[in-house]
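User: Predict the complex with PTJ.
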Amino acid sequence: MGLIEIPDDHPRKVSLETRETIIEGHQKHIVATAGLLAHGRGEAFDYLIGERTTQQAKEAIQAAVAEILLADHPVISVNGNVCSLVPRELVQFSELTKAPLEINLFYYRKEREDAILKALLDAGAKEILGTHDRPSETIPELSSNRRKVDSDGIAIADVVIVPLEDGDRTEALRAVGKRVITVDLNPMSRTSVFSNVTIVDNIIRAMPLMVETAKRFRSLSEAQLIEIVDKFDNGRNLDASLQIMIEHLQTEAKAALQRKPRTVKELKEADQ
Ligand code: PTJ
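Assistant: Here is the predicted structure with PTJ placed in the model:
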């Protein structure tokens, strides 16, 4: 994986390898140039949350998966960053939840659509919505390329999963009555705030957990799934996630001032 070899004992191995994956995705036209910048922003917020999946995020994942399993027409919106980072998990999750994958790009270019389509097919996808040859319609109140949606996908969806999304689109989807689920490391972004369920976690950690949770939750009754959705409150979830970041930053700042930086391993041990 990646363009350069990262030694196993490098303390930032996972982060550096993920960076390599995104760069490779950009070279293959999967990732937009702006996607590199979006990734850097994600890295900064991941640093603030301690590069780990919090209990809060685990609860949001459960609410998200329950909501998707309860939906009549769930759809997963795929952009360049998400396709580059977790293609296999997207396909697995789509199969487990019967939520089709729809390519929906902010920075649309035909060669990007083709590259993303190929990456998803290589990852095992059988059907992809949102390509230029598919029937489409437009979401009102949105001026970007993302206004165009698949007639059998987002157009008729009741629940849309939009990881790493820009705020305008989330607002527009809510305005046309869709429920929105996102994965976004920034708990203050407009997408995070406007979504019904926000998973404040890195997509590279969240997506495998979503797959695992979908496998477990498929055998739950409708009443059990409804109970999981009902006890989740996104406002509380965002407040708690932000609080975790503030506390983590205070601890890290103190440690840095005492010249005793803590490693991710030490943080994980402190969590247990
Ligand atoms: O592929 P395209 O053309 O559809 O474009 C995709 C990007 C990501 C460029 C576009 O959607 C965009 O500009 O997004 P934003 O507005 O930068 O929002 C991306 C959000 O995702 C930000 O809040 C980032 O902090 C967050 N983010 C970035 N990387 C990750 C992430 N959240 C979770 N996991 C990540 N790996």
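The radius of gyration is 18 Å.
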